[in-house]
Structures are given as C-alpha cells and as structure tokens.
Amino acid sequence: MENRIEVRKAALEKISERLLQEFDESEPENIPYFIVDFLCKNYGDYLCGFAKIWNGEFDFEQERLAVIDFFRSQLINMQVTADFISAGYDTLESLCTVTPDDLANIEKFSESSWLPGHKIRLQQIFSDIVSRVQQWRDERERALQKPCQHQCTTRMVNMSGTTPKLPVLTGNPSTSYCMSSLSQSIPRY
Question: What SUPFAM superfamilies does its record include (predicted)?
Fold first, then answer.
C-alpha cells in the first residue's frame, strides 16, 4: 500500500516539475487555463475524453473563419457576425438552418440591437441562405484555383503545387493577382 502511495507521489512530482518548467518558459497570464491546457496536451489519454473537447476548439477554428469570410462577402460587419457565432451558428452548415424568422431570436440571445439596415440585409441573406453559401463556396474554390504571385517572390504558384509559365506581374504589389485579391475587394471593418 505504501509503495502505491510513493509511486503516485513520484508521478505527481514529475508532472509538477514539467508543469513548472513549461510555466517558466511561457509565463502565462491565465494560470488555470494554462494548467488545463497543459494537462490536455500532455495527458489527454487520462482525462476520459475531456482533452478531445478542450482541444476541439482548434478543429472548429477553420469553420468559424469560413463563417466570418462568408459574412464579410455579404457586407455584414464583425459585431453582427460575432452575434451569430456566439449564438452557436459557427459553421456554414448551421447558418444554412437559419430562417428570417430566427433572426429576432439571435439578436435577443446576443443582447444586441442591430441597426435597421443590418436587419433588412440579414433578412435578404437568410431568405436564400443555402444558395448564397453555395455561391460563396464556389467563388472561394475558383479563387483558390487561380495562380498566385506572392509579393516576396517572382514565381507564380497555384494550389496544385505546379509552377505555371506565366509572366511576372510588375507594379504595385497590392494590385497583383493573389488569393488575397479576393479579400481586397471586401471592405474591412
């Protein structure tokens, strides 16, 4: 019995040493968050599925970014976009379930007061949301297939990894054809 207690104490000391070492290296501001994150990253197998939930946030980050990009393409500002995400509509699939009748509930849940122009624009968007999302996906896919010249290189590349024989664009780098040119046409809020 005493041997088991000593083994557990030794394991706890080892975890504590690693935790303190990581703590000293990163100097976190939020200590409880740091401890939970450390345990989930390093000892996730022992946390009965909690680590998967904790680390799952990173898996959904790309979906949230897609929702943000979609709303930006529809000229909706970030505050309204954040209201949708905080109400749980943080994937394009969940956005496709929203109807114009649901907008009042989302506004109420987020404790916001949307401007009348935003409400009208949202009603227009969500009256045909499925086709708008599909159109956005198609446009995004086409943009990703276009050749891209990065500002720091004279080499043209595309998403397949091949280097096409295209002329090098000259002039203002902000006008060069790139995936970011799509985002340049979208207003920043």
Answer: Rad51 N-terminal domain-like (SSF47794)
